[in-house]
Amino acid sequence: MTKTRVSLSIDKKxxxxxxxxxxxxxxxxxxxxxxxxxxxxxxxxxxxxxxxGPASALWMKDAKTxxxxxKVKGKPLIIDTLLKLRAxxxxxxxxxxxxxxxxxxxxEVGNGSSLGIKVKYVEEHEHKGSAHxxxxxxxxxxxxxxxxxCDHYFDFDLATILVYHKKQEALLTLAVYYGTAFEWTxxxxxxxxxPLITEYWEKPSKPQSxxxxxxxxxxxxxxxxxLDPKGSLDSQFAxxxxxxxxxxxxxxxxxxxxxxxxxxxILK
Length: 268
Fold this sequence. Notes:
By secondary structure, the chain is of the alpha/beta class. It has a single domain (about 35-265), classed as Spore Coat Polysaccharide Biosynthesis Protein SpsA, Chain A, CATH 3.90.550. Helix content is about 30%, strand content about 25%. Strands 1, 6, 7, 8, 10, 11, 12, 13 and 14 form a nine-stranded mixed sheet that branches. Strands 2-3 form a two-stranded antiparallel ribbon. Helix 2 (about 30-40) packs across helix 6 (about 160-170). The longest helix has 14 residues, at about 30-40. The protein is globular, with a radius of gyration of 19 Å. The protein starts with 11 loop residues before the first helix and ends with a helix. The mean pLDDT is about 90.
């Protein structure tokens, strides 16, 4: 990433207080300020958590709970996700799902006040596919927004993806995973040319690349006018890739699509 050198005049007492709060994880003032700027970009942006479809489709028989409520590294997945959203500077999460799934999540996290993030629930009355779930968020977002599934575990930096999305002036940017653990049976694969996703394969029977579409990303409200509000969100992303309207931001670290206790065990 290209760095830009800037000169700032800041009140000395304020800077002294800032230096006292610096975490050992930052190697310099510049790194700490850059981190704060990334978080500030996320301020007041909503995160849309996709938990739609029939409740039965999200039920984990082997864990006897819904996917977003299965415990991962000692805490329910949805709590882990909400805490990561808060750490990225996001202040509000909109969960879109069936009455049963929303109720189960509400029983665990409530309005999010205990986690430091506002949680709003939108009920999906008709199940018409993940594209429809995504489309339902149109009434609740006014600018750039984050979207992510309720059953994905990740540890990459969301703020970095936002900075990349803004730099590319993209309509929609997906986080594209290129970690060493390659598993495509439950997700989709992409081909990229520079920042653009030029091909998108929905759950292929054979791998066409080693770049995994995470279904996590940032989008602009203009996206809704280009999508069909039915069917799979994967099919709509494939459509955008053919139109050269889909951007990809490469990420690494940990990423697991949680469908079973076996998936959870990967993270231990």
